[in-house]
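User: I'm putting together a teaching handout on how multi-component assemblies are represented. Below are the sequence lines for each component of a complex, exactly as they appear in our records. Could you produce the 3D structure of the whole assembly as structure tokens, so the students can see both representations side by side? Please keep the chain order the same as the input.
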Amino acid sequence: MRALTWHGKHDMRVDTVPDPEIVNPRDIVIKVTSTAICGSDLHAYDGMIPTFQAGDVLGHEFMGIVEEVGPGVKGKPGAPKKGDRVIVPFTIACGSCFFCEKTLFSCCDNSNPAPNQDIADALLGFSPAGLFGYSHMLGGYAGGQAEYARVPFGDVGPQIIPDGVDDDKVLFLTDILPTGWMAAENAQIEPGDTVAVWGCGPVGLFAVQSAFLMGAAEVIAIDHYPHRLELAARFGAKTLNFHEVKVREALTEMTGGRGPDSVIDAVGMEAHGFSPDNLLDFVTQELKLGNTERPHALREAILAVRKGGTVSVPGVYGGFGQNIPLGAIVNKGLTLKSGQTHVQRYTAKLLEMILEGTIDTTFLISHRMSLEDGPKGYKGFKSEQDKYTKVVLKPR
Amino acid sequence: MWVLERVAALRAREDRVGPAAARGFGVFSLGLGLAELLAPGALKGALGLRHPSDEVVRAAYGAREFGVGAALLAQPHRPEWMWARVAGDALDIATLIAGDRSDNPKRTTLRSALAGMLAITAADVALALRLSRPDPATGLFGRELPGVARVRGAAGMMGEHLTKKLHLTKKAHLTKKAHLAKKVLPAAVLLARRARLNDKRVLAGGGAALVLGAAAVTLAVLNAKKTKGGTSDMPQKGAIERAVTVNMPRQALYAQWRDFARAPRWMEIVESVSETGEGHHWVVRGPGDKRIEYDTVITEDRPGEVLAWESVKGATVRSTNRLEFRDAPGGRGTEIHATMTYHPPGGPLGKVAALVTQKAPELQVRRDLRRFKQLMETGEIATTEGPGAAPSGRDKVKQ
Ligand SMILES: NC(=O)c1ccc[n+]([C@@H]2O[C@H](COP(=O)([O-])OP(=O)(O)OC[C@H]3O[C@@H](n4cnc5c(N)ncnc54)[C@H](O)[C@@H]3O)[C@@H](O)[C@H]2O)c1
Ligand SMILES: [Zn+2]
Ligand SMILES: [Zn+2]
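Assistant: Of course. Below is the structure of the complete assembly, with chains in the same order as your input.
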């Protein structure tokens, strides 16, 4: 089959690779009909995520038609059958361990193979769930930017999509929609709150929508791309362009000197901007001097949030950052919540909201391309972010 | 790129940053040193490095990083300390190169580390050079700055190029090491020539290295005395202890283990286990996939609580194994505490062979326990091995 593979920093290729197979009883194989490029994929594209290997198939936002089901899935009530259309959560979860029982699906104990867990143990203390196409530390699974994909625990993760609903409408259930939703949930929003969101990429934009749905009176969206800010404004957010204003001053001003009740970092480890802290991060990150992150947005968010407020971090960080304002966390009495999204917790509910028309998803897609043009998609999504808000790839 | 322009702008001011940078490197050293001292195993485990006296070596490395870091912090102007760092870097690189074997499953990680290490070394060398030569006219450090930038850039590129090469080539690793030497040596010689150290400095550096070495050994000995694990009621000398919690009742888990013939399902190196009448006959794959066979007898058997077995007298492998099944607090299932000792055939050499081929018991026990847990909790064992389980561009198909 054809698949989009990672060969190093800024080197994506389309290779012909072996077809995936049913290996474990609870596997299913799906024929991919749509797959998207995620901001997380860009971290990998930039060579920022450790333990990728040349040839790895990328992609963790994908959906398609069930081609084959393993003996452990066949005939199980509610489990997908051959021919069903499904979306696949990017977090691989067994459904029966301590963590899955607590719906902490991205912390599943059993989806990362034992040898790969050793790597995660060393870097993170304990191994989280395996993810599709997202490094060997997180399982070494092949991703879904391909014609076919093997999906472990096919009876737990995939959500069946009713006939007649367009791929474009439901594809983002795989990751960024639940991620934006969980980001807002983690922000512990109370009715009347003001929420500030750093980053108007797909995750930030869904966080903006979700925050309003959860009762925020005001949402302030921060980025430097006019078109992305405009999209946030379309959902009712006030916007700040960090190239034009000093973000912290502006936020304090806009909230009558109180500061936002909750802040969301939807930027992650590769913040943009010329602030001195970001430049220092850039140099030490590039030279690998003990620093793997550029957490400028997180720093700003921690300082901007009101006393006793909540900091929600959907943005991805991979290793060790420097100069986090710990004093502000302690002395302002902040709550910090984060995590890879527990996608399985939200898919059914969010699917319903999409079908009811409560949540808009298709506004995001700026580019549709064939899988063969995948490398171009990466390049555009990386370097022309104002034009490229989301790239959807179609195999074949 | 915009950031590079900014960096270039910053460089204008860098004439005075020599000592400040050295202090920065010092902090970094301290951090790394502490990490190596306090989290033994973590760093090396991540890289798939193994060594018969891992404890000691690791602690020594930690102490070395730590010592140099402290010295640099105290005296950022003294080039000796920077040179001591460079020497330490060389040691790290040597260790990493030694771990660069085809059987090392974490080879990629290791190689990224190697590339990182080469870059760091270059930076260190550059700084050391700069500190070694203050401008005679102004007395300021940093006359070497453009040179530093060049050396750093070149080394960075070399690292990048090297890793790329290493990833792609499938030549024997000896050839790779030769390649590496070919590339690194001329650079090192060049750097050394440019350094033109005088005798005083060499002496001072040597002295410092000695003092640090002594400190390292002391700390290593202290650290090696710490016991690992410490959860078992019956600690044994040289025993490996690992624990896992399984979301199931004790009896069911015990029953699975008690049926020894099932063991190959989750014990990676075990090929088969059969009943012998008095006990069991084990066939395992040792280093070099050599088959090793030995017999064991059950020494303790309390259903749902304890299962222990050991090799019979005169067996090729001497091993003792004990599993304790305890209720996890708060109804969280069962804790399995495994304690084992394992002496493969061939004495100390056999042990080294086992370590070198990742058939080391400490690795195996943890992985086997996890595989067992996965099998019990999900009915299968997670895997991404083989092209069917995880297709990749490494297994190209003819078009
Ligand atoms: N937790 C999860 O499970 C999960 C899932 C998906 C994505 N993510 C992460 O969320 C983050 C965002 O993902 P995305 O798909 O929206 O990516 P994206 O790259 O499209 O968006 C990031 C946005 O942040 C903006 N930005 C950069 N620096 C900024 C700054 N200093 N202040 C304000 N805005 C800034 C960029 O201009 C861009 O619009 C990434 O780190 C991604 O890895 C996490
Ligand atoms: Zn994603
Ligand atoms: Zn689980």
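A couple of points students might notice: Residues 202-213 of chain A form the longest helix (12 residues). Chain A has two domains: 2-175+341-394, 177-338.
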